[in-house]
Specification:
Order of helices and strands: HHHHHHHHHHHHH
Structural class: mainly alpha
Distance between the termini: 20 Å
Largest sheet: none
Helix content: over 70%
Number of domains: 1
Number of helices: 13
Number of strands: 0
Shape: elongated
Low-confidence stretches: none
Radius of gyration: 20 Å
Strand content: under 5%
Mean pLDDT: 85
Length: 251
C-alpha cells in the first residue's frame, strides 16, 4: 500500500465523520460572521481613513484579522481533527492490522498527515475566498495577503504534525487532543516568562511559535521563520514514526 492509498483511505474516513463536517460548518460560519463585521467596520471608517496618510487598508483591517481568527480557531480544531488518526485506530485494534500488511510506519504517518493537510487546505481556501472576492474589486495588498496566507498555512501544517505526534503517543483520543493543545499553547507562550522579566530576544523568542507567525502576518517572509516551521513539522512527524516503529517492534 502506497502513501497515496493511505491518504485516500483517511480522506474517505474524514468524509464520513460527523465531527469533521460539524467543525467545518461551525468554524466557517463564525469566520464569515467575523468577516462581515470587519468589513462593515472598515467601510464605516472609510472617511476617517481617507484623511490619514499611509492609513491601513482592506488587507490590514479585514483580510489579515480574518486569517488571525482562523489561526486562533485552529488551536482547538486541529487537535480534534487529529486525535483519532492513530490513537483511535490503536484503541480499535485496526492499527496493528494495518501494520501487519507490511506497511512501514513512515507511510502510515505521512499518508494520514497528508489527508489532514487536504482537509485543512480546503478549510483555509474556504476562509480565504471571502477576502479574495472583495479584494478583487479593491486595492488589496496582495503581497502581504500572500505572506499572511503562507504563515497561516504553515501554522496549520505544524499543528497537524503536532497533533499526529500526540495521537501516536497514546491510546486515548481525548488524551491525544489534550496533549496537542498543551504542546501548542506551550510553544505559543514559551517566552512570556522572559518578557515578564524584561528580557527580549534570544533563543526563547526564536523558539516561540507566535514570533514566526506574527512576522508572516505582517508581510515579513524570512528564512528563519520558514525554517522554524519546517523543523517543527519534521520533528513532530519523526516522533510519530518512531513511536509506530517501536510498537511494531514490540509485536
Amino acid at each position: 500500500m502506497s502513501v497515496a492509498a493511505v491518504t485516500r483511505l483517511e480522506l474517505k474516513r474524514l468524509a464520513v465523520r460527523p465531527l469533521a463536517w460539524a467543525l467545518a460548518a461551525l468554524t466557517i460560519a463564525w469566520l464569515a460572521w467575523t468577516f462581515v463585521l470587519g468589513l462593515g467596520q472598515f467601510l464605516g471608517a472609510q472617511v476617517k481613513l481617507a484623511a490619514v496618510a499611509d492609513a491601513p487598508g482592506f488587507t490590514d483591517l479585514v483580510a489579515i484579522p480574518l486569517l488571525a481568527e482562523l489561526a486562533k480557531l485552529a488551536f482547538l480544531v486541529v487537535p480534534l481533527m487529529t486525535m483519532t488518526l492513530i490513537a483511535g485506530e490503536r484503541r480499535a485494534g485496526t492499527l496493528a492490522l494495518l501494520a501487519s500488511t507490511g506497511l512501514p510506519p513512515w507511510r502510515i504517518v505521512l499518508g494520514k498527515y497528508l489527508a489532514v493537510l487536504v482537509w485543512l487546505a480546503l478549510w483555509l481556501l474556504a476562509t480565504l475566498a471571502m477576502p479574495l472576492v472583495v479584494g478583487l474589486g479593491s486595492t488589496a495588498d496582495w503581497g502581504k495577503l500572500a505572506s499572511a496566507t503562507l504563515g497561516t498555512a504553515l501554522l496549520l501544517a505544524t499543528l497537524a504534525a503536532i497533533g499526529i505526534a500526540c495521537s501516536a503517543a497514546t491510546t486515548f483520543p481525548a488524551i491525544a487532543a489534550a496533549m496537542a493543545l498543551i504542546v501548542t499553547l506551550a510553544l505559543w507562550t514559551i517566552d512570556r516568562g522572559a518578557q515578564a522579566a524584561g528580557v527580549s530576544g534570544g533563543f526563547l523568542e526564536w523558539l516561540t511559535m507566535a514570533t514566526h507567525l506574527q512576522n508572516l502576518l505582517r508581510g515579513l517572509v524570512a528564512s528563519s521563520d520558514l525554517a522554524w516551521f519546517a523543523l517543527a513539522i519534521a520533528l513532530s512527524l519523526s516522533l510519530a514514526i518512531r513511536r509506530l516503529a517501536f510498537d511494531k517492534e514490540r509485536q
